[in-house]
Amino acid sequence: MTDDRYKSVSDGLAKLQEVLADAQKKRTEREATEHTRRAALTGEQRAAEDRATAELLARAEREKIRAKLMKLGAGLLKRETWTIDKFGWLLAVESPDDPTGWTVFDARPREAIKLHKELTEVLESGVPLRLKPVNPTAPAREQRFEVVALLKFAGEKRLGCFEVLSELLGHRAVGAAAKPRPAEAKALAAAGRESREGNVARRRRALVEFARQLAQSGQGYVMADSIELAVNGIELNSGFRARFPQWKDVSDKTLESDRASSKPRIHVAMGRPSKDP
To answer: E strand or H helix at 265, and its extent?
Structure first.
């Protein structure tokens, strides 16, 4: 390697190390700032934040599952009966159709194959006392079961994506967790007594935290001085009002002003929200 080439590579590595060190420094500073902010909260406020974050992440995960199931096609979701093997793939959020083609290898992820095995074993344990086949004389692997019965059993055992699958198929999910009461509901009465300035500041802090949680769930990025979201303003405002009902009457214009005045500043995607498939 020539001296010039060596120097170029060396300079490049040095620059990369600087960039990485700067990124680590900023990350450390953000973590320290967040730690300080959390330390200033009461135990009840931290618990409320944790519950809100957990619910937000769960909602994001449900949306990912819902989108993947919808891609399987409306025809699959209209079937009235399933074999346990194929229904197990649905619960594992995988296509029930055989992906092997002409090969002997299953193209599905290893984790999905393992999960499918666990799910089908539980489903098979319900036959024939809890799950009764509509074609009992058929071989065990070819026996079919009504969707309603399969969903009910899956809900009782809390198997796979039973909750999202129940919603898509138009059935109330048995065993689905009740929607938690918003942690902020207790503050509704007190909010009316707060000054307008204090209420605005509190709302903006909540909006920043809500946007940060969205970004961390895969809906955007948290930068040093801004939060870049993949959702548009209408979607962000709708989700924020749902999470914080005490601000359900705040206008889109006011929330837009909050985004522009918040620290870090919140940027949303352009365009109108897409319709559900």
So the answer is: strand 265-269
DSSP state of 139: -
Closest by alpha carbon to 199, among 184, 212, 211?
184
Neighbouring-strand partners of residue 266: 227
Q: What digits encode the pLDDT tens for the residues 145-194?
A: 999 999 999 999 999 999 998 888 877 655 555 444 444 444 433 444 44
**94/108 Cα distance (integer angstroms):** 8
Q: What is the DSSP string of 62-113?
A: HHHHHHHHHTT-HHHHT-SEEEHHHHHHHHTTS-SS---TTSSS--S-HHHH
| Structural tokens at position 190 | 């007190």
Q: Is 166 exposed, middle or buried (0-12, 13-18, 19+ CB in 10 A)?
A: buried
∠249-254-257 over CA atoms, to 5°? 155
pTM metric for this prediction: 0.52
Can you give the residue range of the structural domain that contains 66?
A: 62-168
Give domain status of residue 56, yes or no: no
Number of domains in the chain: 2
Q: Show which of 141, 168, 195 is a domain's final residue.
A: 168
Q: What is the C-alpha to C-alpha distance for residues 62 and 84, in angstroms, rounded to an integer?
A: 23
Average pLDDT over residues 194-223: 83
CB 175 within 8 A of CB 233: no
Residue 227, strand partner residues: 222, 266
What's the average model confidence in pLDDT over 61-79? 83
Distances 119 to 93, 126, 153, 159, 162 between C-alpha atoms, Å: 12, 11, 11, 7, 11
Q: Both 162 and 254 in a single domain? A: no
